[in-house]
């Protein structure tokens, strides 16, 4: 059994038979439209976000399976805020998230984060917020991290 893996970045729910996937899949003799349809179904909740996709094809049987990656924390933050990019300077603030929104992002990224519990993953997302110019509860994300560490804020 020979397997070939084709990887690419596609916008959630909007993959097409064009580049990057179509030209790579064509020579393998697999049903490209079926693959694209399945990718779009599996990625539709990430609409507006670029997401990594792997198509693993058994070249003997022409059977395929699709693995969808996890969008980056920064992409999820931007989507939550409804903006296109992070701050251009250290002084700029592009938005404000509630702690509940930060928890939601941490839960969405759970499989690809290293934190052993939700509080640690929330602190990782808050660190990303800081670097992007995003406040949490109208505060600097570092002060929220300190409150979590001090036990003033419970994350569960």
Model description:
By secondary structure, this protein is of the alpha+beta class. It folds into 2 domains: 3-68, Ribosomal protein L11/L12, N-terminal domain (Ribosomal protein L11, N-terminal domain), CATH 3.30.1550; 73-150, Ribosomal protein L11/L12, C-terminal domain (Arc Repressor Mutant, subunit A, Orthogonal Bundle). 38% of the residues lie in helices and 19% in strands. The chain has a 3-stranded antiparallel β-sheet, covered by helices on one side. A two-stranded parallel sheet has the order 4-5. Strand 2 (50-58) and strand 3 form a beta hairpin. Helix 3 crosses helix 4 (99-108), helix 4 (99-108) packs across helix 5 and helix 5 runs antiparallel to helix 6 (141-150). The longest helix has 15 residues, at 118-132. It is elongated and about 60 Å long. The mean pLDDT is 91.
């Amino acid at each position: 059994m020979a397997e070939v893996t084709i990887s690419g970045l596609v916008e959630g729910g909007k993959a097409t038979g064009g580049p990057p996937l179509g030209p790579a899949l064509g020579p393998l003799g697999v049903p490209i439209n079926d693959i694209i349809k399945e990718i779009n179904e599996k990625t539709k909740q990430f609409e507006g976000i670029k997401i990594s996709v792997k198509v693993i094809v058994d070249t003997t049987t022409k059977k395929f399976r699709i693995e969808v990656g996890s969008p980056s924390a920064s992409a999820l933050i931007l989507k939550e805020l409804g903006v296109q990019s992070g701050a251009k300077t250290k002084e700029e603030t592009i938005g404000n998230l509630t702690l509940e929104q930060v928890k939601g992002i941490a839960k969405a990224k759970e499989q690809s984060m290293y934190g052993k519990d939700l509080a640690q993953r929330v602190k990782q997302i808050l660190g990303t917020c800081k670097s992007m110019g995003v406040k949490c509860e109208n505060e600097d994300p570092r002060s929220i991290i300190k409150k979590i560490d001090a036990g003033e804020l419970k994350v569960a």
